[in-house]
Amino acid sequence: MHSGRSRAGSAAGGVHRLAPHARYPVVALWLALAALGCRTKTVAELPNNQSATDAEWAKRDAWQRPVEVMDTLGIRAGSVVADVGAGGGYFTFQLAARVGPHGKVYAQDIVDSHLEKIRDRAKQEGLLQVETILGSQSDPRLPPGALDAILLVMTYHEMENYDAMLDGMARGLKPAGRLAVIDPQGTPNQPRSSYAKEHKMSKELVLQDAARHNLRIVREAKGFDSDENTHLFFLIFEKPTAGDASRNGQ
């Protein structure tokens, strides 16, 4: 009854009460744009031509120290290198910038959708030195005897067929070529299967695995702390030269 009286009274008096947004269309438009701006603020704050991936990679630069990693491995202009387990390509593009147009970066992964994103970005940026390789869980499919260095970052703990993978990487290295293993440090003396579940690795197991494939430990470099609870070790191995093998009686 109350609503009926209101409608009747409005009609009789000839007064049509408009909603606020109808009386003030400019204000309504301003409020709508302001609300939209709040929802998109995080995107709008990114610099021009910078993607969300770029922003994440910039944060990672602070703790991962990619320049230091490449310096430690002796990667320079013209080097031929592989990023095994390349994922989204964080190190792939760091390496591409370092080796330049006369070098080569093989971005290897077992997930083709990751490699497709790398191919797209490399094409957009004109990085002809980047080539993708779709490997398998037991073979990285790297070109034999071609690589000055291999980078294995946060990937070792995922390798179920670690002996087969290490064999493929050792074949891919040139004599005196180097393999870097960077992985979150797990608690020592645990079953190997537990490390994959925790996304961590025992560096003692890595040392044992590498020795079986005649990869000599060069040194353990300064590691990384991605947060207060996660420390990543940094091990550097080297493939022996013919002279090293002769001296060791092999």
List the helices and strands and how they pair.
Layout: H1 2-13, H2 20-23, H3 25-39, H4 41-44, H5 52-64, H6 66-72, E1 80-84, H7 90-99, E2 104-109, H8 112-124, E3 130-134, E4 147-153, H9 162-172, E5 173-184, H10 192-198, H11 203-212, E6 216-227, E7 230-238, H12 242-247
Parallel strand pairs: 1-2, 1-4, 2-3, 4-5
Antiparallel strand pairs: 5-7, 6-7
Describe the structure.
The protein is α/β, with parallel strands linked by helices and about 250 residues long. The protein has a 7-stranded mixed β-sheet. About 45% of the residues lie in helices and about 20% in strands. The N and C termini lie far apart (about 105 Å). The radius of gyration is 28 Å and the shape is globular. It folds into 2 domains: about 1-45, no CATH class; about 50-245, Vaccinia Virus protein VP39 (Rossmann fold, 3-Layer(aba) Sandwich). It has 12 helices and 7 strands.
